[in-house]
From TrEMBL:
<protein>
    <submittedName>
        <fullName>Glycolipid 2-alpha-mannosyltransferase</fullName>
        <ecNumber>2.4.1.131</ecNumber>
    </submittedName>
</protein>
<dbReference type="GO" id="GO:0000032">
    <property type="term" value="P:cell wall mannoprotein biosynthetic process"/>
</dbReference>
<dbReference type="GO" id="GO:0004377">
    <property type="term" value="F:GDP-Man:Man(3)GlcNAc(2)-PP-Dol alpha-1,2-mannosyltransferase activity"/>
</dbReference>
<dbReference type="GO" id="GO:0005794">
    <property type="term" value="C:Golgi apparatus"/>
</dbReference>
<feature type="active site" description="Nucleophile">
    <location>
        <position position="292"/>
    </location>
</feature>
<dbReference type="InterPro" id="IPR029044">
    <property type="entry name" value="Nucleotide-diphossugar_trans"/>
</dbReference>
<keyword id="KW-0808">Transferase</keyword>
<dbReference type="Pfam" id="PF01793">
    <property type="entry name" value="Glyco_transf_15"/>
</dbReference>
<dbReference type="GO" id="GO:0016020">
    <property type="term" value="C:membrane"/>
</dbReference>
<feature type="region of interest" description="Disordered">
    <location>
        <begin position="56"/>
        <end position="77"/>
    </location>
</feature>
<keyword id="KW-0812">Transmembrane</keyword>
<dbReference type="GO" id="GO:0006493">
    <property type="term" value="P:protein O-linked glycosylation"/>
</dbReference>
<feature type="compositionally biased region" description="Basic and acidic residues">
    <location>
        <begin position="59"/>
        <end position="71"/>
    </location>
</feature>
<keyword id="KW-0328">Glycosyltransferase</keyword>
<dbReference type="InterPro" id="IPR002685">
    <property type="entry name" value="Glyco_trans_15"/>
</dbReference>
<dbReference type="GO" id="GO:0006487">
    <property type="term" value="P:protein N-linked glycosylation"/>
</dbReference>
<comment type="similarity">
    <text>Belongs to the glycosyltransferase 15 family.</text>
</comment>
Amino acid sequence: MARSDARLIRFAAVAAAVLLTIFILSKGSTTTYVPSTSNNNNQQSSNAAPVDPALAAAQKEKQEKSEEKTKAKTPAVGSGGKVAATFVSLARNQDLWSLIGSIRSVEDRFNRQFKHDWVFLNDEPFTEEFKRVTSALVSGNTKYGLIPKEHWSFPEWIDLEKAAATREEMKKNKIIYGDSISYRHMCRYESGFFYRHELLQDYEYYWRVEPDVKIYCDIDYDIFQWMKDNNKQYGFTISLHEYAATIETLWQETRTFIKEHPEYLPADNMMDFVSDDGGFSYNLCHFWSNFEIGNLNFWRGKAYSDYFEHLDKAGGFFYERWGDAPVHSIAAALFLPRDQVHYFPDVGYYHVPFHNCPIDDKFRLEHKCMCNPKDDFTFRGYSCGQKFHTVNKLEKPSNWQDYS
């Protein structure tokens, strides 16, 4: 009897110890509920403790980093074999709210079908807000690059006092952007460096998109693939005459270069688009480069690389105010066969103050174009559109004179 009592006492002691341990452990624990992403189960349990904000933030950051790593590994060329192409926007952080309209226009009219990537470049680091907002709008991958300082500064051979005197003189003469240093850095960068950025090395074609532009018409084919399939190296929507006071010696330097390198000019070049007298003078015609679709390998090639280096050493980006538009245009006209330069009559494009709007009524309605054909700039007097059609023997729309 005494032995049984002893067993009962020991059993009761062990049981009491176990119950005490369970009680202590239960007092020191909490239950965290992670809401389901399902629409049918997205409310927190009324019996659960609230999610720790610090823990939730850490989990979100970890997830975002994981997604970024996955996105970075996504190849530029899709599994379906589509052409390696991207949109390119040179933008400042303060351009965000004027740029998102451009992005939405391009996405709605074209890219939501094809999901090409988008590369953003800036001479300062992009803000988290810029990246968050733009990535939410783009259907492809988004990439954000910082421009190397040596690509956005005065090169060592530039006489800074001479450059400053030029800016002061242009300011006095009220030449647009005449006194701007940043504008000159931008023109030089777009002329000779954007295609060298590491983020663009995986791509063959690009489409330049700037703030405050609009695409007017539905584009139901992959423009990049069409460019590749048809061996087009450069495409534009608007052409016009350049402001002569900004490029006083550009053609002189161009003539010097082509005299030294006649081998870079193919037999069927388009000299007759940029010169009315066989190359003696420049008629100021150029493609408006705020819209351009092109093959990056053309800019990477030896002809253009040598041409840019010649111009850069001449100093006209700073001693005058050479724009990337005439530089690109002259190069495309001289170094490409004419059938590799393409005018897009079917995109519908706007950048203040000029419009490109298809003047064919049937096409405009079929592609849901939201533009007035009376605004079309193609055949207006200050445009070089008519000249482009003439020198290339392109058929003009039957009613073109009604819009000239």
